[in-house]
Amino acid sequence: MDFGTIVEILDSAVRLGTPLLLACLAGLFSERAGIFDIGLEGKMLMAAFFSGAVAAVTGSAWLGLLAGVGGSMSLAMVHGLASITFRGNQLISGVAVNFLASGFTVLIAQSWFQQGGRTPQLSGHARFEPITLPGASAVKDVPVIGPLYSNLISGHTILVYVAFAMVPLTWWVLFRTRFGLRLRAVGENPESVDTAGVSVIRLRYTAVAITGVLAGLAGTYLATGLAAGFVKEMTAGRGYIALAALIFAKWRPVPALGATMLFGLLEAISNRYPNIDLGVVTLPIQFMQAVPYILTVVILAGFIGKAIPPRAGGQPYVKER
Fold it and tell me: Where exactly are the transmembrane stretches of this chain (predicted)?
């Protein structure tokens, strides 16, 4: 394997890991505030559909982005209403969101476009175009540095750079601001936050809204950046993988970056090498495609160290009178 091939695999890993990173950060805000969100998959799917549909009709990826975030936010508010206001079971609410999005997107896509639950193929300004960073062409032929900068760092869509910028921003918001301190406190001990005169309900709704925006970006990227339109069930379990990555990262933003890129790398390798010959045995394409999901099960089973979630996670808050 030469250096150029390694760079190509890493470039593919970044592209495939980006929606996982955005979804993982989305779940991070929600779960740090004490709201478990199994519904990331549904939010991403809804965002992917509306972004693809609006971009196809208007020819604008930016309008598609607004529509995608709006679709995700609508499901986030449904989940917030069920979990926070009505104090329902958060896991059941999240599963319901996933089922709702799964059926709704196919039904509306077929009604609007009559293409078997798909949106029309996107092209031109209906997709987010790759951005060439300054100097990428000039250093392209420089050994090592050139391919890394021109092929790995440069040439991605704006949503990829937004996803990576969100990692330090999320860390700063959660660990260096008053809002972040209160948000984390709500997930650990909401009674103390309420005693201090801060609204637990408002903080949790804010966290759920941020989750909706980030999951919306993830779904939009799938339809208008990574692919060229919406396809039935195109999230393909990425919402669940993002949750596994969040547990793997122990609810911290910087390790979340590493975890999601690891999943992206595994998927990139499986795409690049469908069959791997180990000499004694040849791993078939089906096994390579299943590797990211196998790792998800391993992480969720607790084999990668003990991950302790926020103490008040999954528990509706009832204000004492």
Answer: 12-29, 49-70, 91-113, 158-175, 205-228, 278-304
